[in-house]
Specification:
Elements: E1 8-11, H1 17-31, H2 38-43, H3 46-58, E2 63-68, E3 73-81, E4 92-99, H4 108-118, E5 126-131, H5 135-143, E6 147-157, E7 160-169
Parallel strand pairs: 4-5
Antiparallel strand pairs: 1-2, 2-3, 3-4, 5-7, 6-7
Length: about 170
């Protein structure tokens, strides 16, 4: 089993895009199999996602960090300016934090989160969105000081309307 001390967290580069896409898709398939249709999860395409991650890595205001072990990337996070209508200048949003299922429960997500939070100016408001049925993620974010602030939205994912909950940390 992997241990957090065997994992390095570093800024992502465009050459990481395909590996990030593979982790992204494996995580979605593992985490959302009870929430999203199998047809949608099986349709997720590495090359398409890699293009999105290449753009994210080069975006000026976005920070993408990769967690990797001796085999390669096992997790990543993406953080940038908060996109919500009620966001104040300087508010941040965690757009994504995903781990390959083989890294679940190893402490790598905790270390990624700590790295993100340690990189923020004290007092910065941070938000993120979680699918309503994703109890594992909600528990993880609560442990890191995030709370559901009552804001919800409906996003269509895989042809299905799904409720997302906003969690915030001040």
């Amino acid at each position: 089993m992997m241990a957090p001390e065997d994992v390095t967290i570093r800024p992502a580069t465009t050459t990481d895009a395909e590996a990030i896409a593979r982790v992204d898709i494996a995580s979605w398939r593992g985490a959302y199999s009870e929430i999203l249709p199998d047809s949608y999860l099986s349709s997720l395409d590495v090359h398409e996602r890699a293009g999105l991650w290449r753009n994210a890595v080069t975006a000026r205001a976005t920070t993408v960090l990769v967690a990797e072990d001796e085999v390669g990337p096992v997790g990543f996070t993406s953080v940038g300016p908060a996109r919500d209508e009620d966001a104040e200048p300087g508010d941040r949003e965690i757009y994504a934090i995903y781990l390959h299922p083989r890294a679940w429960g190893t402490g790598v997500a905790r270390d990624l989160m700590r790295t993100v939070l340690d990189g923020l100016t004290p007092g910065t408001v941070v938000s993120l969105w979680i699918l309503e049925g994703n109890e594992r993620a909600q528990h993880f974010y609560r442990r890191h000081g995030f709370q559901h602030d009552g804001t919800e939205r409906i996003d269509e994912i895989g042809g299905r309307p799904l409720k997302q909950l906003r969690f915030r940390k001040r």
